[in-house]
Amino acid sequence: MSGSISLEALDLAALLCSRVCHDLISPTGAIVNGIEVLDEAKDEETKTFAYDLIKKSAATASARLQFCRIAFGAAGSAGAEIDLGDAETVARGFIEDGKTKLTWNLPHALLPKNRVKLLLNMLVVAGHAIPRGGTLAVSPVGAGESMSFRILATGLNARLPQSVPGLLAGGSGQVIDAHAIQPYYTGLLARSCGMTVTIATEGEAIVVSAH
After folding, report:
1. Which of 109, 200, 190, 192 shows the shortest CA–CA distance to 161?
2. 181-192 vs 113-128: helix axis angle to the nearest 10?
3. Is residue 4 in a domain?
4. Considering the domain boundaries, does residue 48 fall inside one?
5. Which range marks the domain in which residue 184 is found?
6. Which of 58, 73, 141, 189 has the most CB atoms in a 10 Å sphere around its CB?
7. 101 inside domain
8. CATH number for 53
9. How many domains is the chain partitioned into structurally?
């Protein structure tokens, strides 16, 4: 793409690793804290609190690992396909919490892995547009192996992150750090699929689409 920047392979790998570590450090830290509380607990109420913290944090860490494995990892050999049903499972585990819900309108189908990786990364981009929570609704555009996606992000104070459109387009003139690598990588995935991914406002909602 004209005007886009290009990261060295080692820099791209290092920044993606930093992004994954960022997603995992909070739940793993909470597990450590829960174990420390459990070691020092003298009463059953405190022990129950510690067990609940460890259980919840372990589940969160597992869900994030499963998501990152597909969204950022190899997820199979070159040319592999991924079931959209599996993508829905990891997406729900990663995204859904007390604040954010996922509406999945995609059919069960096998798609090339980079197209599914693109979808998952688009969901992350869309999630950042509703920092106070809301709903992410993903719908298909077209069908078959050429299927693309449209994600509608709705929620209180939904906003268009200022740097993200440029990062999706290739990051020309922008610093690509651990915070910027995910939308930048999303753009790379789109271009690897022969597509373009965009983010724009639509009324009070934000739309992330690939075409």
Report:
1. 200
2. 150
3. no
4. yes
5. 9-210
6. 189
7. yes
8. 3.30.565.10
9. 1
Would you tell me the crossing angle of helices 9-40 and 44-71 to the nearest 10 degrees? 170
How big is the chain by its Cα radius of gyration, in Å? 18
β-pair type (197-202, 134-141)? unpaired
- Rounded Cα gap, residues 118 and 58, in angstroms: 26
Q: Is 148 helix (H, G, I), strand (E, B) or coil?
A: strand
Q: pLDDT for 3-27, tens place per residue?
A: 567 788 999 999 999 999 988 999 9
What's residue 1's pLDDT? Answer: 42
Task: Please return the burial class of 77, using the count of CB atoms within 10 Å of its CB with bins 0-12, 13-18 and 19+.
Answer: exposed
Question: Tokens at residue 200, please?
Answer: 């724009």
pTM for this entry: 0.90
User: Is residue 3 in some structural domain?
Assistant: no
CA dist 197 and 147 (Å) reads 13
